[in-house]
Amino acid sequence: MNATDVFYNVPVTFSWFDYGLFVAMLLLSVLIGLYFGCCGHQDSINEYLLGGKEMSVVPIAISLVASNISGITLLGVPTDVYRFGSTYYMYVSMLIPVYVITYYVYLPVFYKLQLVSVYEYMMLRFNRKIRLLTSGLSTVATLLYLPIVVYIPALALTQATQFSLHLVTPVLCGVCIFYTTIGGLKAVVWTDTLQFVVMIGSIVAVFYKGLDAIGSFDEMWSRAAAGRRLEFDLDVNPTKRDTVMATMVGTLFGCLSYMSIGQSFVQKYLSMPTKKDVKKALFLFMFGMFAIITFVVLTGLIMYAHYYECDPFTAGKITKHDQILPFYVMDVASTIPGLAGLFLSGIFSAALSTLSACMNCLAGSVYEDFVSPFMPKDISQKQVSNILKLLVMIIGIISTAMVFVIEHMGSILPINYALGGITNGPLLGLFTLGMLFPVANHKGALYGGFGGIAFMSFIIIGSQYYQVMNEYAGRPVSIEGCGNGTILLPNLPDSSVDKSDVFILFRITHYYYSFMGTLATVIIGVVVSYLTRKPTDPKVDPDLISPFSYWVSSKFGLEKPEKGNYYEVNKALGVVTHAEKQTNAT
Asked: Over the stretch 290-301, which tens digit does the pLDDT of each residue have?
C-alpha cells in the first residue's frame, strides 16, 4: 500500500525528503535529551522536576504553549471547524479571563507553598485521603488523555504512508520516553522549544498553501459564509453542541482545570525564579495561544472552501472525519516537496511536547503522593532521581498500550472532553473549594469530590450509552463537484432522529462537562462542610487560602479569619502549620 492507495485519486508521493524532515526532528529531540541527561546534573528531585528553579521566561512560555497544543488541537480543531463552523474561535475570548484568574486566584497559593506535587496542597488543607483522591483522579485522567495525544500523529502518518499504526505508535513513544527519562524538565522545555518552531512552521505553511490553492482570502471567506461556517449561534440551550455560550463556558473551565491547578503548568510556574517571571510567561503563553488558535480555525475554513462541492467523507474518500486534515495536506502538497513532511513533523511535535510534559509531571506527582511515603527517610537524591526516571518509563509504556483502545473510539474532540469531564471538573472543584471557601473541611471535600465524580460519570456514561455525542448534525456539505462516477455513501448517523425522549442531562453538550463537575463538587462540598463543622475545628492556615477570598470577604463584610486567633487556636489543638513545617525542615 502506498500514499496513492490510501488517498484514492490524490496524486501525491511521500518522498524520502518528507521522511527526513520529521526523522531529523526526532533525532534533534533525542540529542537534546542526551545533552541534558549527560551535562544537566539530573541527580536531585529539584533538578529533575523543577530545572533547579532557574528556568527563564521565554523557554517556559514556549513550553507552556507547545505542551498545551497537542495533535488534538492541530487535527481536531480544523476538523471541528470544517464540520460545525467557526464557533470554536470563541476560545480566544476566554484567554484573558483565564490568565487573570490563574495569576490572581490560584497561583499565589502555589507559589507561596512551593510544592513539588500540587496535590500535597490537599493534605495541608484537608487530609491525606483527599490528597490521594485528587492525585489518583489526575493520574487516571492523564493516563486516559495521553493515548489520545499519541494516537493523533500516528493516525496522520499512517494516512500518508505504508506504515502501520501499530508500528508507528511504539517508535513515537519510545523516542519521547527516552529523552524525557534521561533529560528531566530541562530536556522537556528545550525539546518543546524546538518542536514549537516546527509546529508553527507546519501550521503557517499549510495555511498559506491552502490559501494559494483557493485563490484568495475573500474567496475562502465567501465560500465559508455560503456554507454557514461563519454563523455564531447565540442560543443558550445547553443541549445544542456549538453555541457561543457553550464554547465560552467550556473553554473557561476547561482551561482553568489545567492552567490553574494542573501539575504540568504549576510545575513550570515554580521552575522560574520569581512570580514576575510567571506573569511574563503567562502573557506570552496567552499571545501564543491566540496566534495558533487563529491559524487552526482558519485552516478549518480553508479546508471547507477547498472541498465545498466535494466533501471527502460523504464521497467515501476517507473513513473517519479526523482523517480530513491529513487528506487535505496530501491533496495540496503534490506541488511542494517537503510540505507533507513538514506537516507531519508539526503533528509529531505537538504530540511529543504534550506527551513529554505530562510524563514528567505525572512522574513527580506519583512519586510524591504514592511512592515517597514508603521510601526510607535517608534515601538519597540520586536514588529519587532514578525512581522518577523509572516512573516516566512505566507511564510511557502504559500510554503506548492504551492507544490500541483509543483507536476504536469516535471523533477526537468529543472523546477528549468526555474523558476529561469525569475528572477535570471535580479536580478544579476541590482546589476551588479549598482555596476560596475557608468554611470547607475534609468531610465536605471528601463528599464533594466523590459526589462530583459520581454525577459526571452518570451523565457521561448515559450520553455515551444513548450515543448522543454521535448524533450532532454538522453544517451542510455537498458532493456535487465530485464527478459523474457512482459514489457509495458510508453509513451516516441519522441527524433527524428525535432525541427528546432521552433524559436532558444526557443531551447536554460536552462543552459544559468541566463546568458541571466543578459546580457540583463545590456545592456539595460547601453544604456538607457547613452541616458538619464544629466550634473546636482548627482554623485554616492563611497560607492555604487564596488572597482573592480575603478580598471578597473584605468587600462584602464576610467573616475573615484573624491571624492571631488562628495561631492561638491551632497551638492549643497541637496543629502544626505549613509555615512551621517549613521552619522545622530548615
From this structure: 988 998 899 899
